[in-house]
Amino acid sequence: GLIDVRCYASRECWEPCRKVTGSGQAKCQNNQCRCY
């Protein structure tokens, strides 16, 4: 789901999402990170 991390590129979300979900699968959606 969405996490409270601002972004411009999906790769900016990989590390934050890995910390939250343990998975590096992420997308930047409407300038906010979404983890899968």
Helix count, DSSP H or I runs of 4 or more residues: 1
Shape: globular
- Could you estimate the helical fraction of the residues in percent? 25-40%
At CATH's second level, what is the architecture? 2-Layer Sandwich
Span from first to last CA? Answer: 6 Å
CATH class: Alpha Beta
Strand order of the largest sheet: 1-3-2
Radius of gyration: 8 Å
CATH topology: Defensin A-like
Average pLDDT for all residues? 97
Give the number of domains. Answer: 1
- By CATH's scheme, which homologous superfamily applies? Knottin, scorpion toxin-like
Describe this structure in words.
The protein has one helix at 11-21, and strands at 2-6, 26-29, 32-35. The radius of gyration is 8 Å and the shape is globular. With 36 residues, the chain is of the alpha+beta class. Helix content is 31%, strand content 36%. The longest helix is centred in the middle third of the chain and has 11 residues, at 11-21. It has a three-stranded antiparallel β-sheet. The protein has one helix and three strands, in the order βαββ.
